Structure formats: C-alpha cells, structure tokens
Amino acid sequence: MKLISLVENSSCHADCGCIHGLSLYLETPKHRILFDMGPNALFLENAQVLGVDLSTVDLAVLSHGHYDHGGGLELFCKRNETAPILIAEHTFDVHAVRVEDGYEDIGVPAGLQGKWSERIRTLSGPLDSELYILTEIPHREYLTAASATLLERSGEEYVSDRFLHEQNLIVSCEGKHFLLAGCAHRGIVNILRAGEAVIGGEFDYVFSGFHLTNPGLGIDEPEALVRAVGEELRARQKTRYITGHCTGAGPYEILREMLGQRLDTMPSGRVFVL
Ligand SMILES: [Fe+2]
Ligand SMILES: [Fe+2]
Fold first, then answer.
1. Per-residue pLDDT tens for 123-157?
2. Of 59, 144, 231, 267, which one's alpha carbon is 20 to 30 angstroms from that of 157?
3. Where are the domains positioned within the chain?
4. pTM of the shown model
5. Distance from the CA of 244 to the center of ligand 1, in angstroms?
6. How far is the CA of 107 from the centre of ligand 2 (A)?
7. What is the 3-state secondary structure (H, E, C) of 119-182?
8. How far away, in angstroms, is 209 Cα from ligand 2 center?
C-alpha cells in the first residue's frame, strides 16, 4: 500500500504547502482513494507537485463534516468526474464552534449535497475485500475536552456534537490492516477498539489526528489524559501510529516519549510505502 500525505498542518516538502487540515491519497492493489480533501485547493496543488493524478481516483471518503477535511469537496468533484464520495449521515448538518460573539460555522456547505447528489453516497460496513467503512463506535472512553467544545445544531439550538457525521476507513490488503480516521473526535482508543473488532486483531498502521488539542484556543488536553491514551496505544503489540493535524505538538511529544518509533508524523509531501 502506498499512502501520500497531500495536506497536513506541516510540510516536509519544499514545494508542498501546509495548512490546518488533512488530505491523504492511497494506492492499494484495487483502488486509488482520496481520504479527505483539506480545507481548500491545496490538495490539488500538492497532488500536482507530488505526481498524483486525482482524476484517476476511484473512491473518495470524507471522514467527517468539518471544513478542514471537506472544504475541498467541490473542487474534487470538478477535478474528478466519476469517483463516488462516501460520507457519513449528518455530514452536511450544521457544525459549529462557540466564539466570543456567537457561533462560527466549521461545517461543509450543505448545498453541495444536492448539487453533487449523484456522486455523494452514505455506506457503511464492507465495501469489498479491501475496504470497510466504520461508523459504529460503541465505546465512549478517553473523550477529550477539545472535541467536547464542538457543536451541532439541533433545531434553533447548538448542542454538543455527537459526531454522528464521523466515519473511519479500514483498508486490508497484502496481509496488512490499516485504520484511517480524520480527527478521531469519538476518541482514537474507541475507534481503534471498534476497528479491531471488525478485523479480529491489531492494525498494522493507524493514520489519524488524535484531537488532543483545541486548535482554536491552542489548549492541550491534560497530560493525564494524553498518557492514558498513550498507554492504550502502547498496549497494542504491533500497531504503529502516524498522526498529526489535531494531535497537538505537546501531546505528540508525550506520546512520542511513550511510544518511541511506533509513533510518527504525516506532513504534507510525505510518502509511505507500507
Ligand atoms: Fe480536523
Ligand atoms: Fe474535525
């Protein structure tokens, strides 16, 4: 499996830009997949620099309905005329964060769903022998304050986001299992457990932001929570974790100290052949 980071908050490539967001491109024996599109046109620009032809992608997966992952959705629809785009239900609901004088919309424009309805689909469970869309996350441990501050609109009110718009992708190929999540708002440990139940064992690699910092306020989760998450990750025998985006520099350092080389980053321009 080959995975190329098209967009992340940092860059390791002189000609690739970076921005708060995430977009990953994957090549498997059967598929060319775009997982998230970042907030804007940067994924298109970096794909060109990196020699990735997005017109040949046969499946796009949107991890959740936040702009930093789905802002590039319409640009992708125009660049690639055929690939279906898989979303979780509620992706186009209103998602927001509280700011000083009200609420700031951090969602994906609702109008896109109708405009591209022929291509936007909601599926869960196995897609084929390689791919599985994971939406059911029964556990609710290690939830973070950073995710708890995010909101969804219910009628005229804003209430705590239940993240029903979040989905995760499992890729199984060439004897390895990969878990891809966007921000892991429902908790990376909970998502990991649900994914492990699907594959019946441990993942080889996890690619995900862990949302252990509040990107708007720059406040990291308490060290005790970060370490508790780290203990869970470390308890797996073989899983390697590639993270960034909303993990936060402070929490990353703590996790790196705990996990050593089993933890790594995914800046824009980084290529993984696994
Ligand atoms: Fe995010
Ligand atoms: Fe998010």
1. 999 999 999 999 999 999 999 999 999 999 999 99
2. 144
3. 2-273
4. 0.98
5. 10
6. 9
7. CEECCCEECCCCEEEECCCCCCCCCCHHHHCEEEEECCEEEECCCCCCCEEEEEECCEEEEECC
8. 9
